[in-house]
Amino acid sequence: MRRWDQRSVLVVLVVTIALLAGACGTSPSRPNSADGLTSSSPSASPVAARPVELPRGGRTVFPRFRMVALYGAADGGGLGALGLGTPDQAARRLDQQADTYARPDRPVLPVMELIVTIADPSPGPDGCFAHATDIDDGWRYLRAARAHRQMLVLDVQPGRCDFLSQTRRWEPLLAQPDVGLALDAEWRMPAGAVPGQEIGTVSAAEINTVTSWLADLTRRRALPQKPVLLHQFTPDMITDRDALASPPELAVISHTDGFGSIPDKTTKYRALTNPRLHSGFKLFYTQDKPLMSPAQVLGLQPPPDFISYQ
């Protein structure tokens, strides 16, 4: 009789547990929202993704920020101040330089301007008289820039090849929200010309093919506005300048390049400033005699939006 009682109790317990499990709907095979499946509840709605911003906030470059850059290649400093030391060391020096331009009414956004396509005195395998650097260097500098809330700008010296073909190879980096572009017309060589032996030139039409492509890339990926520098230190370095396009996705900058005395540099800046574009100004640590102070640079008319140091 005692054995029967124990068996009866066991049966009752098993049946009770089964009934409770069915009532609670705890079957492990039932999908729920934690599985990443779409809920059928009419109250459920997708959460809108927050638009990506620039490293120090916002989605447009100007007039919120003044940009201050170090220029160079990842070559140990041979082509400019950016290449001295490690990328992180360069980022720290850049922060120090940029801080000299910070004003209460206009914060600075520091920029690493990295030469990624370098003009050469020999044709190379593709006949461009230029070579692309290792893209891994670009990623290294971008990581350092991000650690300091800075931007990266890729500088292209295309040699005898066109700017668009030499720029598109950098699309993986340019597709990032904190990477801009610089086109260096000094190194856009006509047929038969050799970089370093004469000054290059480019048409507004060729530049517009690049800015149109980059604006489309920026728009399709919903990226923040990108700075685009147009380096120039002679009037004919960029021809038909009035035809230069300025898509809203880009902040196109007429960047006055070249070293020299303060009177020479200020005269050149006045002559090359394009009222249709943002203004830029370049300084050389060792070749400018003397080096202009931040107060002198900001005293230029108009005060430059983009200031770089080589």
UniProtKB/TrEMBL annotation:
Biased composition (Low complexity): 39-52
Region (Disordered): 27-52
Domain of life of the source: Bacteria
Biased composition (Polar residues): 27-38
Name of this chain's protein: Lipoprotein
Organism listed in the record: Williamsia phyllosphaerae
